[in-house]
Every structure is written in C-alpha cells, then in structure tokens.
Fold this sequence. Notes:
Elements: H1 2-16, E1 25-26, E2 30-36, E3 42-46, H2 58-61, H3 72-82, E4 92-99, E5 102-110, E6 114-121, H4 129-141, H5 146-161, E7 165-171, E8 177-184, E9 195-196, H6 203-212, E10 214-217, E11 225-229, H7 249-258, E12 262-270, E13 273-282, H8 290-331, H9 339-345, H10 347-354, E14 358-363, E15 366-372, H11 377-391, E16 396-398, E17 415-422, E18 429-436, E19 440-445, E20 453-456, E21 459-462, E22 470-475, H12 484-511, H13 515-541, H14 545-566, H15 576-588, E23 595-598, E24 603-604, H16 609-625, E25 635-643, E26 646-654, H17 667-680, E27 683-689, E28 692-699, E29 704-705, E30 733-737, H18 741-754, E31 758-762, H19 765-777, E32 784-788, H20 797-805, E33 810-814, E34 832-834, H21 839-849
Parallel strand pairs: 23-25, 30-31, 30-32, 32-33, 33-34
Antiparallel strand pairs: 1-11, 2-3, 2-6, 3-11, 4-5, 5-6, 7-8, 7-13, 8-9, 10-12, 12-13, 14-15, 14-18, 16-17, 17-18, 19-22, 20-21, 24-29, 25-26, 26-28, 27-28
Amino acid sequence: xxxxxxxxxxxxxxxxxxxxxxxxxxxxxxAVIAADDALECITHVSENIRLFLHAPAPDDILGQPLEAVxxxxxxxxxxxxxxxxxxxxxxxxxxxxxxxxxxxEVSVYRTSTRxxxxxxxxxxxRSRTSASVIQVKAMIExxxxxxxxxxxxxxxLRNRTGCDRVMAYRFAADGAGExxxxxxxxxxxxxxGLRYPASDIPDQAKALAxxxxxxxxxxxxxxxVLVLALDPAEPQLDLSLALTxxxxxxxxxxxxxxxVAATTTVAITVSGKLWGLFAFHHRQSKLLSADFRSMxxxxxxLFSLRFQQVLAEEQFHDRKRTxxxxxxxxxxQSLDTDWKLTVAAxxxxxxxxxxxxxxxxxxxxxxxxxxGSIPTPASVSALxxxxxxxxxxxxxxxxxxxxxxxxxxxxxxxxxxxxxxxxTADEPLYLVFFRGEVAREILWGGNPExxxxxxxxxxxxxxxxxxxxxxxxxxxxRCTPWNRHNVATALEIRTELFRLSESRMQLFQQRQQNLLIxxxxxxxxNILALIRSIARQTGESADSLTDYTQSLERxxxxxxxxxxxxxxxxxxxxxxxRLLTIELQPYLAEADPRVTLIGPDVGxxxxxxxxxxxxxxxxxxxxxxxxxxxxxxxxxxxRWFVQAGGLSFQWKESNGPTVVAPQRRGFGRDLIERSIAxxxxxxxxxxxxxxxxxxxxxxxxxxxxxxxxLLVEPVPDMPRSVETVPAKQVLGSVLxxxxxxxxxxxxxxxLQQLGFEQIDAAPNVARAIALIEKMQTQQTPYRVxxxxxxxxxxxxxxxxxxxxxxxxxxxxxxxxxxxxxEVPASLKDMPRLQKPIDLxxxxxxxxxxxxx
Length: 852
C-alpha cells in the first residue's frame, strides 16, 4: 500500500514538472518565427511557415534576416513594439498585415534571449464584437451577488461565442477546482457543481493561465507543428506567452476523454491571484477571431475588477455584522473585568458566530477557559504546539484533526475539525474553535480515486480519467469546511480581541461607531467609487485618448500614494510636509530649490488624505505644465498655519509664465475648487493672478492633528507620483525625436536613469527645429540628440543637419535595416542604433559622443 502511495506521489510530481512552456511545437492554426534580441537574424521557425508566407523552405529561412520573409513595414513596427517593456510580460498584438499577398495577424513577445513572432490567418470577426462584450459588462454591473454574476457571465459568453458549453471554474485553497456556473446546450452532460482534483490543472498550468489570460486550443486532433532551431543544441524556445503553444499531450488526452474538440480559457483574477477560469468547450474545431479574443482579454480585466469589488463588499458586510455582534458581546461586560475573563465569558457567542460546537483559550500550553465540546486538555495542547509556526502569520483551519496523526494524541473525542488563531503578539495566547463530524456527499467529475499510472520519458505519470460522469463520494471523519466567510469572521474576532488586549474596554467604546464603518467602507467602497468618478470626469475633460490615458494613470497613481499613506495604524495622521515633499521632491532637490515650504508639524486625518493628495497632484501637474514650475525662474511658496480654529493652506506661484484664466472648466479645476468644500465642509478659492496661480484652502480642525506624528519615515528617493533624476547626476538637456508616444516615454525613462536634467521630445521635424532654436536663444543648447530616422511622413535628416550646424552631437535610431536607408553623404558616418534600444547600448554610444 505504501509503495502504491509513493508511486502515486511520484506520478503527481512528474505531472507538475512537465515543461509545458517549452513543448518544441505549436498548433497548426498559426506559425512562429523567432529572432535574436536585436531582430537581425532568424533563429527559429515553425515547419508550416510556407502555409502563411510565400517563403523558402524552413531550413533555408534559418539564419536569414527578418526582411527576407517579412515586409520592411512589418519589421519596422516589430522593432518599435519590442522597445516597449510590456512585451516581456505579454504577447502584444500588432494587427493585420498584407505579406506577399496573404493577410496575416501578427503578435510578438520577448523572452530573455529571443523575440518570438506569431502569425495566423485573418478570420472574419463576429459582428458587433466590442458591443457584445460591453453589453455583457453592463449587465454584470447591475448585479451584486457573486453567484448571479458568474451565471450571467457564462450564459452571455455562450450566446456571443456559440460554444457548446461555457463554465466558470473556481480554484479552492488546496488547488482542487469546482464548476460554479455553467451554460450548455441541452444535449451535453451537466458539470455544474462537480469537483475536480488539483492534479487536473497542475500548478505550472495555473501560472501560465494567469500570465497569458487567454489560452486557445483550436482542434485537439490537429497534428503538432515542430519549431526548428538554427542551433539544434540551443534549449527549446520559450513559448510561455505564445497563443499557438502546443498543449500538453496529457491535456489533449484529457479533453478527448471529455468529448471536447476545441477550447478557450479566460483567466479570472482577484487581488492579483488566479481565482478561477472561464472555460469554453466545443465539440468541433473552433477558433475565435483575433478581434474577439482581444475583446475577451478586455472583458477578463473588467470582469475581474467588478468581481473583486463584489467579493470585497460582501466581505465588508460580513465583517461589519461581526463587528456589531462583537461590540454587543463585549459591551455587556464590566469595564473592570480582566479582558481575558471578558473573552472567556463571550465564548458561547463567539462559537455561534463561527458555527462551532466548542472553544478553548490556551496560554502557555494550558487551557485557561473552555466552552462546549472540546478534546482532552493534552490533545488541545498538542494541537496548538503543532500549529504555532503558521499561527504567527495566519489563521489555521483544519477539516480533519485525525489526518494530523499526532503521536501524542490518542483521540479527538467528538471533534473533527478546528480553527486556531493567535490573540496577542507578545505572549503565546490562542483561541481554538472546534467543530464536530458532519458526513456529507461530494460530487466529483469522475472517480478521483481511480488513478491509472503509465510510464513515459519522465517516469511514471497519471493517466487522465476516461469517465467524467458525476461520482458521489461520502466523506466522513471531517467537519463542515471552514469557508471564506468563517475565515473573515475569525479575522474580525482576532482583530477586535487583539485591540481589546491592548486597551481594554475603552478601545471598543472609542471605535464602536465608526472604525469599521468609516475605515473599511472608505477603503473598500469609496475608493472604488472615487476611481470610477475620476475615470468618468477625466474622460469628459480630455482632448484625446492619449491625454485621457496619461491623466487617468497619473491621478490613479496619486490616489494609490494617498491610500498607502492612509492605510496602516502608524500613519493614521500622515504629516502634511511629508505629503508635499513627495509630490515636490524634484524641485526641492535642486541646487537652487524653486519651492519653499513654511508651516508647523501638522498631520491630516487618513480619511481626508486621498482627497488632499488628488488636489495637490492637480496643482503640481498644472504648475509643472503651465505654471511657475515649468520654467527655471519660477518660484512656489506653500504656507500652512492655524486660522479660525482650523488650518489655512496657501499655494502661491510666482515668476512663471504670464497666467491666463482657462476658457473652460476641466475635472482638475473642479477637483481643486469643490472637493474640500463639498465633502469635508472646508473652504476653497482658486485665482489666476497674472504673476502666478494662487490657491487657498481652509480645513476644519476635525481633519487636523496639531502635533508631530508618532511615526516619521524617511522620504523615498524616488516618489511614486513624479519621476525624477538623482540630483548628483546632471547631464544637461537632450532632444528626443520619436513619432511614437509610448516609445518616446520609454526613451525618457532611460535618459532619466542616465542622469539627464531636461528631456524634450518632438514627434516631427517642425517641432524639433522649433525646440532647437528655442534652446539656442536661451543659450542652453542641447547636450545631445536622439533621432528616429523614419517619422510618419518624413525623415529626421533636416533635424540632424540643424544639430550639426549648432555642433550638437546626435545618434540615429531606426526600426528598419540601416543598410537599405538612403542617407545624405554628410550624415552617413553618424552613429546608429537599431530598435529596440536598451540602456546599455545607449550609454555606450553616449560615452563616445559626450564622454558620459
């Protein structure tokens, strides 16, 4: 028996170690080309490449430049996209291209050593693709019950895709899965409510599911297509992010046994972790179009955010009810009673909250107080001793005490399971709840105990089950499972009793009305509502999609910074000077600071910090773009002082560009003028004086603490809301000419790391020439220039000649093969870099040009 158990564990281990990310082959609906990191030489190609491109035989392609099989336009676009950091973590879709008369979909991602390009034939997209997904999202937004949301999602996704079955599959803590929602055709076997062992979807498959979001198998019977390598000794190509990656043979066998010919899976993530999957099953070959898959990826993100919000709200209500019950339990005790006796007296009510039949308070291995049905004192002590390690950081739940097999325990009496939690941090004091045995049925998708083993290249492995009919298992010797509601209740009990141990009954009286209601409600619900409002208001005032994306990202980053300050007991009253220093650090770090901060040590209430930081972010952004912080001569003075029982905060800009009041009202202005007055009963004034913007706020005393905060942390070198360059590395100014905004921003980050003080970017010749002339008139010429040769409808040669005239060194960058560019004679010897450009290559060129 032990030998069989050991063999089974070895087979499980081998399945979990299967290298599914390097299968050496792809599915036949697509083709793959891989190149070196510089996109100069083809290193890998799939055997079926000629079906997608009018290309030579695969062996003849290896070692050739990309331009030998792809158009110059496509290679140029690939170089641009490979300059973005996102291609290291996801497969970027470039879209449809006409290559040698064939229309193909192109996607690309990068590994540590290779650039992997995927090709597939263009399919006719289903009509109203994006409208369909938006309609599903709108319907889900109206629901606030997790089960209803999942049921609605699978039904609508099946309607939109025409698949035979769409399921929502949830992962349990032990890795097992359960079908929690299902929409299917009437002639298909129902899977709703069935469970599947963790071995059905190994850990490495779950990791890839979270990384790639969407996984497609067009046809389980389609033969695998090998990927050939220029160097046969090179390790297999990493296909982790490839849509066309060949499935594991074990998975193919599994699907065949289920009667499934084609699948698509979409990840559901909650709080950054894989919660489950949407699984699409079809009994015939099926491939969703690239457009529809893009919409599914967007839907996955939107659904996951909404689902996470609903789960958080549900947990909040659970904790709110628990907190209310705990208050009534504890408030009935005398204030003079020792807190441990208070807990002991509350054990019956605490057991009711957790649906437990017994509980014990254990200190130093001995039972202080007990209630209801519990094991012997020796057994309880052994259980606590066994669980002390995990208790330091988490709650421990056990459904079967018998499975612990503790040698010093003869039996557990009527108890079958337990939940343990630590009550204090400074002494070994624990609260243990016990549940009795409850025999119950579990429905499995096939018999989980039927474990056939075969031997393959990696040793023994499990053979996928041939039957998935519902299999009933009678479970005995276990308690009712401790679900997430029980754990949330236990967390609240621990939190409340921990606070009670520190400050006795006074703490409960101080926070009985508003701790959970104000803090949890604010941080779980109001923050989400605020983000939704920011997104909507930003969209109304944005001039373009780029403007909207940048403004929204910066405002959310500012809000995240505020949330960090407002979360945590120690920073309940973060200092106003610290908040200002974070936002204004680049201007405070200069040799001649342009910002003056004047005021006493004052802290703000955590609930007010998000609003204040958003207002501050708008003031800083406006000053940096148009006001006093946009020029070296500009100055900013920020003062705060006691006035009329509250805090007066004054923002005054001077010596900047002449101020003209804006012609229209935007979200930023409304935020500055209305938020503090409307939400916190303060006062706000904003004036556009000719010499500089002036803003004054009056903040009520209830939001202010007039003393130094108890905890003062050092200001980080790199603030989250404003990117800056260390003051010790100042290399002057640099001109970047790049027609792609994202690439220009990525270049700016590289240049900031190198230490350039000012970085100007231009998308075309006219803008670049204007910037050069402006810098010359200010007698602060650029130190160096970086020019993308191929702009949208022009080249940068005119800019290069202008830089030569002013004796400013520069370097060309290009997405095309430089051998095919017709460069003027005077510019042929200028240094060139090919995209994608990394920091090391850039620094090496600068060492030659400007002695970096």
